[in-house]
Amino acid sequence: MRFFIGDKEEKLVNRLHGGDKTAMQDFYTLYADYITSVGARYIDNDDDLKDVLQDCMVKMLTSIGQFDYRGPGSLQAWATRIMVNQSLSFLKRKRAEAIVSLDVELPDEPEVDDPPIDDIPPDVIHQMVRELPTGYRTVFNLYVFEDKSHQEIAQLLGIKRDSSASQLHRAKNMLAKKIEQYNKTNTTR
């Protein structure tokens, strides 16, 4: 989803670079919902998510001078990257209850086939992802949405490469079970 295409996005960037107060409001109005949805992939508590969104917006608006416009979509990609980084920083600060569990070796689970998702609303799937344990959710999002390799995820989170692969496998299995349950309860009505 892109809010500005071509010249309009570039004009917004130029207004932001010029310190135009209305441009900052336009940026917030246009990107807050999108950036919130990116952060919600990582952070399951709405109050924490609001705090991270605020930190993210402050970081974006104070560092917009370093942003180099590289064509349509580059502003959104930049904002997304900042939100992902802010979300990961937040999770690292909460390491005791979150990411530390990523490096624990658990017994292997058998692979579960991908259940059909065509009839499940996107917001339901989004909520299923938010309900995953923090470690599973973090690795799943970095792998699926940010297109990171297991090596990159391991470096970002300070875990072993095999732990990343294991966490992704478990996340997929847990999601498959949630989807199967949803399909069962919503097709028997």
CATH level 4 superfamily of the largest domain: RNA polymerase sigma factor, region 2, helix turn helix motif
- Distance linking N and C termini: 34 Å
Structural class, from secondary structure content? mainly alpha
Strand content: under 5%
Poorly predicted sequence stretches spanning 5 or more consecutive residues: 98-107
| Total helical segments | 8
> Could you say how many structural domains there are in total?
2
Average of per-residue pLDDT values = 85
Oligomer: single chain
| CATH C-level label of the largest domain | Mainly Alpha
Rg, alpha carbons: 19 Å
Helicity range? 55-70%
CATH-level-2 architecture of the largest domain? Orthogonal Bundle
**Number of DSSP-assigned strands:** 0
CATH topology of the largest domain: Rna Polymerase Sigma Factor, Chain: A
What general form does the structure show?
Answer: globular
- Order of SSEs, N→C? HHHHHHHH
Strand count, sense and closure of the main sheet? Answer: none
InterPro entries: RNA_pol_sigma-70-like, RNA_pol_sigma-70_dom, RNA_pol_sigma70_r2, RNA_pol_sigma70_r4_t2, RNA_pol_sigma_r2, RNA_pol_sigma_r3/r4-like, WH-like_DNA-bd_sf
Domain RNA polymerase sigma-70 region: 28-95
Organism: Hoylesella loescheii DSM 19665 = JCM 12249 = ATCC 15930
GO molecular function, one term: sigma factor activity
